[in-house]
Each structure stands twice: as structure tokens, then as C-alpha cells.
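Q: Sequence in, structure out?
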Amino acid sequence: MRITSKGQVTIPQDIRERYGLLPHTEVEFVVEGETVILCKANGENHRMRAWLDQARGSADIKMTTDEIMALTRGED
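A: Exactly. Output:
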């Protein structure tokens, strides 16, 4: 099996059927040492993780942990 110039590979039909990899199924790649594992993404968790990864480091207001805790607790 080869990866195309666009980075695509065909998952054999018997594997897709056995593991429920239907069209539009979200997947993720897990790296363990020199091994890459293709896994079904965990739906909401996958989308939330992607959003958090994108948002990480984008805040422009610097606050200490104590200031954030006071804000979330409604303390003055």
C-alpha cells in the first residue's frame, strides 16, 4: 500500500466494515514511538480538543491564576 502525493491512502474495505469506518467518520492518528495508529475519533472530545489546541495561547489579557479564580467565583 502506498501513500499518494496528496498524503492519501485507501483503507481496505474489510477493515472499514469491521471497524465501522464509514464515510465522514472522524479519525485521529496516535503516535507511539515509531508507530502511527489510526483510531476513530471520540466525537465531541475530538472537536473540543481541536478547538482547545487552536485557541491555546491566543488570549491577550494576562491574568494570574488567583485573579481568574476570583473572577469565576464572583469575588470582588
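Helices lie at 13-19, 44-55, 65-73.
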